[in-house]
């Protein structure tokens, strides 16, 4: 189940407000300019599927987004808990950063946790299969996949060069909850 927790940026220990209904999550995120939608993710793809398989399965959605919203590049992150580089891949996204383009991600399997630092608040969004999130350019954020990653996400870029991050140097991400491994993947 998708989940939004909203913290005060200065008070990571204080219990956050929590939303678990998709409409509530979308409404709260829309207030701060973040896109959150539920899409059909009905192709039988498991984490670990290749980029080619994922792109072929979602070709029509990808083509439509590229045509209608002007994306120039697409790639896929597809990870399962035994990936040999999982620790390094997790580390890559764990510190606060921004991008000079919107971060648009469609989760076609599994789950991952985006945390957005907007003004005085921190929005921690657990995205699950079927969720599309669009984080505006310049938004400070980080992403966790847990120590046992289990997800397939399609990434769309307006920049032809794909993923480029600007790290803020802040340690704020260390103070907020990390993603817990999905129960069904913890063997
Ligand atoms: C779920 S896609 C991988 C994370 C990513 O691309 C990013 O920029 C996280 O902030
Ligand atoms: Fe990012
Ligand atoms: Ni600190």
UniProtKB/TrEMBL annotation:
Enzyme Commission number: 1.13.11.54, 1.13.11.53
Bound cofactor: record note: Binds 1 Fe(2+) cation per monomer.
Record-annotated site: May play a role in metal incorporation in vivo: 96
UniProtKB keywords: Amino-acid biosynthesis, Dioxygenase, Iron, Metal-binding, Methionine biosynthesis, Nickel, Oxidoreductase
Residues noted as binding Fe(2+) in the record, renumbered to the chain: 97, 99, 103, 141
Catalytic activity: 1,2-dihydroxy-5-(methylsulfanyl)pent-1-en-3-one + O2 = 3-(methylsulfanyl)propanoate + CO + formate + 2 H(+); 1,2-dihydroxy-5-(methylsulfanyl)pent-1-en-3-one + O2 = 4-methylsulfanyl-2-oxobutanoate + formate + 2 H(+)
Cofactor: Fe(2+); Ni(2+)
Gene3D superfamilies per record: Jelly Rolls
Residues flagged as site, May play a role in transmitting local conformational changes: 102
Pfam families registered for this protein in UniProt: ARD
Residues that, per the record, bind Ni(2+): 97, 99, 103, 141
Pathway, per record: Amino-acid biosynthesis; L-methionine biosynthesis via salvage pathway; L-methionine from S-methyl-5-thio-alpha-D-ribose 1-phosphate: step 5/6
InterPro entries the record matches: ARD, ARD_bac, RmlC-like_jellyroll, RmlC_Cupin_sf
Site location (Important to generate the dianion): 105
HAMAP family: Salvage_MtnD
Subunit annotation: Monomer.
Function, as annotated: Catalyzes 2 different reactions between oxygene and the acireductone 1,2-dihydroxy-3-keto-5-methylthiopentene (DHK-MTPene) depending upon the metal bound in the active site. Fe-containing acireductone dioxygenase (Fe-ARD) produces formate and 2-keto-4-methylthiobutyrate (KMTB), the alpha-ketoacid precursor of methionine in the methionine recycle pathway. Ni-containing acireductone dioxygenase (Ni-ARD) produces methylthiopropionate, carbon monoxide and formate, and does not lie on the methionine recycle pathway.
Annotated family: Belongs to the acireductone dioxygenase (ARD) family.
Entry protein name: Acireductone dioxygenase
Gene that this polypeptide is encoded by: mtnD
């Amino acid at each position: 189940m998708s989940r939004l927790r909203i913290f005060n940026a200065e008070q990571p220990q204080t219990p956050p407000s929590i939303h678990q209904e998709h409409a509530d999550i979308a409404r709260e995120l829309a207030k701060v300019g973040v896109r959150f939608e539920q899409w059909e993710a009905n192709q039988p793809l498991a984490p670990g599927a290749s980029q080619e398989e994922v792109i072929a399965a979602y070709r029509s959605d990808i083509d439509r987004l590229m045509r209608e919203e002007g994306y120039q590049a697409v790639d896929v992150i597809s990870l399962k808990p035994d990936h040999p580089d999982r620790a390094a891949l997790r580390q890559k996204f764990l510190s606060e950063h921004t991008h000079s383009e919107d971060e648009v991600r469609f989760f076609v399997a599994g789950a991952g946790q985006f945390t957005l630092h907007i003004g005085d608040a921190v929005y921690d969004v657990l995205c699950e299969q079927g969720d599309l999130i669009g984080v505006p350019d310049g938004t400070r954020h980080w992403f966790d996949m847990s120590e046992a990653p289990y997800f397939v996400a399609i990434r769309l870029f307006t920049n032809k060069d794909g993923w480029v991050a600007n790290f803020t140097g802040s340690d704020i991400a260390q103070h907020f909850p990390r993603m817990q491994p999905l129960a069904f993947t913890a063997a």
